[in-house]
Amino acid sequence: MMSVATASALAAGMTELQEQQRAFRLAVVADGAAAGLLAAGSSDPLRRLQIYRHAYRSRLTDALAANYPALARALGDEAFAALAAQYIDARPSRKPSIRWFGDGLDDYVGQHDVLSHPALRDLLRLEWAICCAFDAADAPVATRDELARLAPEAWPTLRLELHPSVCLLDLDWNVEPIWQALTRDAETGIEQALPEPVEHRHSLVVWREGLTPKWRSLEAAEAECLRALQRGETFEELCRSAARRINAERAPAFVVGWLQRWLADGLIARV
Predict the structure, then answer these.
(1) How many distinct helices (H) and strands (E) make up the chain?
(2) Non-local CB neighbours of 38 within 8 Å, separated by 6+ positions
């Protein structure tokens, strides 16, 4: 059995190690004091610490570029590096996986005037939705046959769930052609002139089909119904939401038509 003295010594050693780890992290991440962190007598300890600092920021910049490749190409290396440096300082990585670094970029650029054009914020929002759709949890999708087997009296109170990969976006700019052009340039290695951003308020649905993220634009009424479905409203309530946008008598037919497309696209999780 371990003695009290031995246990106390181990606990003290762990506490000292934890303090050293915290101090080293602050020295690397926040340029904190570096005194006593490196081995005594080591050559040029500050230069060695700078290597860690540079590696930390460089790795996070690379992760941000991996999550926002179109934005990085649109801004160019210098401007994107400047944006990454500001974001790293303002929003240090807090998640265990570096994959999710950049989850607050939309919020950050919304609070700070750091982008050269307002359309770029919609571009990064589209990119993040595509990333999240790719990494979202999987779930079985509903089929037309499964819904066809439901009793007629079950439909008014039926609640459908969206697949975990589905994301709804409200955009102010028509950035889809820009994203397509930047993605094509990255694939071909040939840079071409980008389409001029056009101000256009609209909605998109982003989801994953198999291993491939997809997106398409939505009419206002369909977008409203998908939001109602996202809120957990019943099929009857979906029809009421549609009726606020289109002819009330035709609303159920529109909802059925949309539902058929949602099923074909794999937007609906198994009931």
Answers:
(1) 11, 3
(2) 45, 48, 49
Instruction: Look at residue 186 and tell me if it is in a domain.
Output: yes
The total number of residues shown for the chain amounts to 271
Percent of the chain with pLDDT over 70: 85
Task: Write out the H or E segment, with its range, that includes residue 167.
Answer: strand 167-173
- Is 267 within a domain? yes
**CATH no. for residue 151?**
3.90.930.50
DSSP secondary structure code for residue 86 in this structure: H
Model pTM score: 0.83
183-216: per-residue pLDDT in tens?
A: 998 888 888 888 899 999 999 999 999 999 999 9
Structural domain of 153: 137-271
Cα 101 to Cα 104: distance, rounded to the nearest angstrom:
8
Tally of CB atoms within 10 A around 167? 22
Domain count, the chain: 1
